[in-house]
Design a protein that fits this description.
mainly alpha, two-stranded antiparallel ribbon, 3 helices, elongated
Length: 119
């Protein structure tokens, strides 16, 4: 009789340990899922902010194109002022810069390299 009580106690302890291990595993998995969801939400929000930036500068560039399609200089409205708009929980500020005067690293490539010439 006494031996049966010890076996029952041992079985109960093994069951409690197994359930505790399962609970810990589920909690760890839930934490990882929460972290993944936070990263997904953050990346989606960043993508929406980029889309908002494009929508912010699109009318400025279209107006510049309609005003003088063959002329671009740094005194035009697109280059002078930062373009900004209020967004959810913040403010979006976009600055446009002309890349024409920047150094083209592709010009350092071998002239016979057709991949560099296309870039």
């Amino acid at each position: 009789m006494r031996r049966d009580r010890g076996t029952a106690l041992l079985n109960a302890l093994v069951m409690v340990a197994a359930i505790a291990a399962l609970a810990v595993g589920l909690m760890i998995q839930a934490g990882h899922s929460r972290d993944r969801m936070a990263h997904v939400v953050g990346s989606q929000q960043a993508a929406l902010h980029l889309d908002a930036g494009l929508l912010l500068v699109d009318p400025v560039l279209r107006a510049d194109w309609l005003r003088a399609p063959d002329l671009d200089h740094l005194e035009e409205p697109w280059a002078r002022a930062p373009h900004d708009a209020d967004i959810d929980r913040g403010r979006l500020v976009a600055r446009l810069s002309d890349l024409q005067g920047r150094f083209n690293i592709n010009s350092l490539a071998n002239a016979s390299d057709t991949a560099a010439a296309r870039a």
